Amino acid sequence: MSERLISTPALIADTTVHDLAPAHGGDPYRIFLHVPAKPEPPTGWPVLYMTDGNAVIGTAVDAMRAQAGYPLGTNVEDGVIVAIGYPVAGAYDPLRRSWDLGPPPGKTYPPFHDGGPEVRTGGAEEFLAFIEDELKPWVASRARIDSDRQALYGHSFGGLFALYALFTRPLAFQTWIAASPAIYWEDRLIDRFLQTFEAAVPDGLRMQVILSAGEYETEKLAPFQIGAADEAKRLEHKKLTRTDEFARQMAERLGTIPGLSAGFELHAGENHMSILPVTVNRAVQAAFAVHHP
């Protein structure tokens, strides 16, 4: 006699999903909100904000839960995770993220595919204003947040956005994780914001910045890329992006600023996409490091 199997959805623990439209109108963001099912700390929860929410939320929650259960061995405690994504089925919405994560003024590019819309960049200030002015108060209405323990994570274009946010609103977060940041983008447009930041660093700054790249974001190809049909094209593209070199240089430059602790991490065996879960975990470890008042 066969036993009938009943399928139920596998859910991300203690995580809810909300489609939140900006106050000025426009398409909604899909907000993944994780609040630990535990009593909140006296000072409120530390919080980690993440771009590309659809792609990172499950990894972030499970990385935190696995480590926060053993704080003496991991130095990680529980916290709130806010992953900002889009109402799509896949991991990314390439068109919207190009606009949201690209520093202004931006440019217009050909469609991603035939018949598609043009790709625009330059909406980072608008996106950052949504996070600061609308999303943070919305989160605070659902969980008590420690305003002195806020972190921002972004990967690739999201890493570029994290740097833009750091340079334009340096007091918005205390911990910044820019994984494989696209510093090269649009002839290093990010440098103009860096220079403005350096010219007027806020007094009493206390922050941590982590930049990173994968071993195969250097001049090296991954073993599976050697001899592939696109080998020459990849090698040529590496001369443009120079992800590890630019991120390392950025960390060294930021490390000279008083009150700012900056470091660069090179992750062995990782390429531009495989580095995602590795750096999500590093963001969890940085954002939720055990707090000793």
From TrEMBL:
InterPro entries on file: AB_hydrolase_fold (IPR029058), Esterase-like (IPR000801), Siderophore_Hydrolase_D (IPR052558)
Highest taxon above the source species: Bacteria
Classification via Pfam families: Esterase (PF00756)
Keyword Hydrolase among record annotations: yes
Keywords: Hydrolase
Keyword Transcription regulation: no
Gene Ontology terms for molecular function: hydrolase activity, acting on ester bonds
Family: Belongs to the esterase D family.
Protein name: Esterase
Taxonomic placement: Bacteria, Pseudomonadati, Pseudomonadota, Alphaproteobacteria, Hyphomicrobiales
